[in-house]
Every structure is written in structure tokens, then in C-alpha cells.
Amino acid sequence: MTTAVKAIYEDGVFKPMEPVSLEDRTEVELLIQTPEPVGDDPWKTVTELMGCIKNAPPDMAENHDFYLYGLPRR
Length: 74
What we know:
alpha+beta, two-stranded antiparallel ribbon, 11% strand, elongated
């Protein structure tokens, strides 16, 4: 069974923000997904990666499918 529950991590313990219908000591598996901070530039990672391949062919952007997958060049 899968149930989404918002929780706060405090003092080393995950504390649900709403009631949960589980018996005490029920073992669960947590998938932790934290919200992205408001105001972060979504292109930050992209701009950090731009130009990181120093020896790329000059037509790498136009023909990336050829270089990655061996598909015909444009």
C-alpha cells in the first residue's frame, strides 16, 4: 500500500503533519522528496554545465543524436 504523508524531520525523527492510521511499530519505507527552494534559478545547472566538454566537435549541438546514438547526421 502506498500513502503520501507530509512530515517534518526534527531531532532525528520524521513527524507526520497529519494523522496516520498505522499501528505502533509498523515498519514503513520512506521516499524523501524535499521541495525546491523558492527563488532558485531553474537554469542554474544548465548554465553550470554549458561548455564543460572542452573537446566536443563543433557540430555537437546540431548532431547530438549522431554522437550519442549513431543516428544519421542532419
